[in-house]
Specification:
94 residues, alpha+beta, Trypsin Inhibitor V, Chain A
Length: 94
């Protein structure tokens, strides 16, 4: 076997065993979720659920596609954005 092919084969084996070892280890830590003034990070699990099948937070404001929105940004206001079919698409401050 030529020397260059041996080196390439050895490098491949090292890379393969390194990736297998990493795959068998623990999962990487999730990045910490940044706290928001309105607490939107606590309600991200609502995304994808239908508004009628969900207990919404009292301080949340429903934002439908046809809702006229104020241009005033209020960081403590929790907005719950709906899609055309009534499913929650976004949860954000503002």
């Amino acid at each position: 076997m030529p020397v260059s092919r041996t080196i390439v084969t050895a490098a491949f084996i090292v890379a393969l065993t390194t990736s297998i070892g990493a795959a068998q280890g623990t999962a990487p830590e999730a990045a910490p979720v940044e706290a928001t003034p309105c607490g939107a990070e606590h309600f991200q699990d609502l995304v994808g659920t239908h508004v009628s099948a969900t207990a919404l937070p009292e301080h949340g404001v429903l934002v439908r596609p046809t809702t006229i929105r104020a241009t005033i940004y209020l960081p403590e206001r929790l907005n719950i954005g709906l899609d055309e079919t009534g499913y929650i698409a976004t949860v954000y401050c503002g």
